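Marked as duplicate of an earlier ticket. Keeping the data here for the record.
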Amino acid sequence: MVLLGVEIEILLASRPDELEASDLNDFAELFSKAFSAETTGRFRMHADVYGYNGPNALVEWTVTDNATLDTNQDDQWPVEIISPILRYEVGYWRQDVSQLWDTLNLLCLADTNDSCSTHVHMSLGYEPWGVHHLKRIGYCVIYFENAFEMLAPEERRQNEYAKSNRHDNPRFLGKSDDECYRMIDACTSVSDIVHLFNNGEDRYFAWNFTNLLQGGIMTVEFRRGPGVTTEEACLSWVELPASFIQVACKMVTISDLNRYPATVEGLLSFISEFPEPGAYRPQNLATIFEGKSGSLVPTPIGELSASSQERLARKKPRDDLKGLMAKKFLRLL
């Protein structure tokens, strides 16, 4: 069983006469209350800009601030919308995401830019991650990294918040495929996997394993998704990592992977090989895979500019402090 958590960074402008707000906290409060009143979905919403201690904090949508988002115009509010924990297998998560967008579009106009992204957290439900699961995922991340790079929109390439796990990671830098696989094989604990793929405990990689250090039922996070403004795009960028993880956990050896080309076409065949009955919907991937082929070696980010370093310095303490998605998954422990 795979459980999902979705984080949507987005720019919202109130529709006329809907939400007249004086500041971001005021907007978040008004938006969450209006959402809860209008939604026909299973989950209500609350605001958490300066903290929230309500009774349903862990089982509702959350709207919060994000220090690294830039707006496109003066009437927009840069926010992050965080899902409750959703179940991948039964497919209800699609209804929940669809109902989020139905209600959001009633109240606001959605926009995005290069500062926005969509992150997907995945756990094995009540089953702790085993080292064998994480090794299989690790093999697949290395093997298909160039295919994922081809699928990623240009603004998500060379991105300091979603770095290449291989080409921006000193631990893998300059290593051949076989050397990378042997390094993965040598891991004997969850923390070994985390430190290998995240160069210690740096969460800002395309695949972030650092949440696993908080407990066995924590998440693997995919951070390469772009900002989205439609239900269709949101569903696609959740479907991709969720289905990939589902299949990766079933891989046993590198020989299993070698049956697929390390390309966009091979990645799609891989994802389609062992679909979860009633869960996997290949049509949701069409918008990502359409018109894409081959592979692309990630270009290393290199040294950050002074402004990028300053932005990262502002973001990290905020992420360390809030960790709202982690708190939602910790309730399972």
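See parent ticket for discussion. The CA atoms of residues 215 and 333 lie 8 Å apart.
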